[in-house]
Amino acid sequence: MSLSTxxxxxxxxxxxxxxxxxxxLLARGASVTISDINPERLATxxxxxxxxxxxxxxLAVQVDVTDEKSVQxxxxxxxxxxxxxxxxxxxxxxxDKFAPVGDCDTGMWESILNVNLTGAYYxxxxxxxxxxxxxxxxxGGEQGSLVIxxxxxxxxxxxxAGVAYTVSKHGLVAMTKHTAGYYGPRGVYSVALQxxxxxxxxxxxxxxxxxxxxxxxxxxxxxxxxxxVPISHVARYAAFLSEDGIGQSSNGGCVTITGNxxxx
Length: 264
What we know:
The protein is an alpha/beta fold.
């Protein structure tokens, strides 16, 4: 189904999964705001996507999702350019170093929670009036708006990441379900995607130094067989959920995309 009537805001979309989601949505006809904290990477992504897709359907905004004013500007610029917002994809996130609670640096804890959870809260908070207005304009029901939160195996497992990342991703599920329950009757739905290991991501950049080896070894012992799924599969789920009616049917759901890792 074409997404040609949809305006979709994707955070953390200058590389990896976020970029793949943005590209998949553009290929389906959507207008997309890409956003990232890294201006150089964002500019490169905008240039490359503009070579394939109409620049009229693209907006690039540098954003720090931990800064509420920066997020406000992101939402405002999206509405100024495209006049409304149909879907938000909260993809921006950072990894921890696999540290357990006894060894987790407080600075790392705060950084992970600020980006992964508070950032998604800021984006959803400031987009919500526009999502509600769009749902009302289109009549709600199958024509409603949608918030997609990118979770992880750490959203439902206690031992696939460090404590900070695990708490942040569990929190995203809680926000997904609360948003679904409160705003669903008003035509704004929420779904979490929970990928496991993924190919073609920048996650390994987080482990250049300071990795908690005991924490990592504990995870490897608990789950010895790692399976990576293509990021394009996760992106296709995001596009599918953005179709009319699918968000309503999936409201409050958590879709696991792991290749059965960890084993069910």
